[in-house]
Amino acid sequence: MNIKLRTVIYKNKVEIENVPVFSCEDCRRSEVLAEVKSELTGVIGKLEQTTNKQHIHFNDISEIAHLMFKVTEKQYAADPVEKIVEERINELLDLLLLAQSLQDEPWVEDVRKRLEQISKQSLSLNDSP
Predict the structure, then answer these.
(1) pLDDT tens across 27-54, in order?
(2) Model pTM?
(3) ∠ at Cα 76 (115, 16), nearest 5°?
(4) How many CB atoms lie within 10 A of CB 117?
(5) Contact criterion met (CB below 8 Å) for 4 and 23
(6) What's the rounded Cα separation, in Å, for the pair 16 and 18?
(7) Its domain of life (predicted)?
């Protein structure tokens, strides 16, 4: 199975772009990456009442999707994934300091959540044999 960033369409009204999805070319089966499934479910849960057409970039919500999106950009093609992840962590730490200095608690929580997503993924990768 290959992993790709795909567009998920919800109730023919909402397009959610850049969702990490495993796809099998042979059987044409697709499955959302387990690590982002709960986030995607949360986004969809907030859309239950929506009647308007919407366009959402999942990479703006999920750090895993953000990093996968960034890795696929041409300007980063020669960069090692570790470098891209490290730069993103530093970026988020800078944003955390700024949010804390402005005492913007919702922003602080959002940045902490993003850092947690990366650290959980890093821990699970390091735990594999």
Answers:
(1) 888 899 988 998 999 888 887 777 788 8
(2) 0.79
(3) 60
(4) 21
(5) yes
(6) 7
(7) Bacteria
